[in-house]
Amino acid sequence: MRNDTAPAAGGQDFSAPRGARTEGRLEFSRGAAHLAIHGASMEDLFRAHFGQPVPSVTVDGATVTVEYPRFGQRGWWRPGAHRGGRVTLNQDLAWHLTVHGGVAWLDADLRSLRLAALELGRGASQVELRLPRPAGVVPVRVGGGASQLRVRRPAGVPVQLRIGHGVAELRFDQQAWGAVGGELRLETPEASQAPDRYEIEIASGAAHLEVSTEQPSSQP
Q1: Contact yes or no for 11/43 (Cβ under 8 A)
Q2: CB 96 within 8 A of CB 23
Q3: Which is it for strands 11-17 and 56-60: parallel, antiparallel or unpaired?
Q4: pLDDT tens-digit profile of 55-102?
Q5: What is the C-alpha to C-alpha distance for residues 158 and 171, in angstroms, rounded to an integer?
Q6: How far is Cα 142 from Cα 121, in angstroms, rounded to an integer?
Q7: Cβ neighbours of residue 199 under 8 Å, at least 6 residues apart?
Q8: Rounded to two decimals, what is the model's pTM?
Q9: Which of 1, 124, 163, 216 could form a disulfide with 16 if both were Cys (CB 3.0 to 4.6 A apart)?
Q10: Which of 108, 103, 113 has the alpha carbon at shortest distance from 133?
């Protein structure tokens, strides 16, 4: 792995060669905030820039692990508490993306990636996910307490949605609900038989959730 910029410069750049890898994993072990993720065509496995405080970044094979210092709860989520980061992933690999713990202010434009799975820990807030066309059944798992979560997928892509223990303010394509108690299961027509689809699961409770299709005019 290469560390290209010293922390004293206000941040640090990281990258690693791809080699012959066909799959990759990106894991945030202690949450994340003010984070952007996208894909690009490049020779490296990944490239990233993180502002202060700079997290620890390690590469083990095709697994990239990002670990921030421990913060108190108020310090971690306070807007402006740190400068966040931007991660670019090699779009020719199939990626597993995981954030353990909470995540806030996440913009993940994954439309150019091959997404194998995505998991966000409990307490996801202010999150926008723009998904690519799936190859096979692709799971998207979000821990309980999610709020202000918007998931967009390409038009015509089947999806199954399961929410445990209630939701407040949900939009699922052209349908909308104010509040629903208990478990909720929704799916697009014939999604259960579709070989290529998303399975989205919110573990326990959500508020201000949108699952919809990408507008053609906003495609890259």
Answers
A1: no
A2: yes
A3: unpaired
A4: 999 999 999 999 998 755 555 555 555 568 999 999 999 999 999 988
A5: 16
A6: 6
A7: 137, 138, 139, 140, 159, 160, 162
A8: 0.90
A9: 1
A10: 113
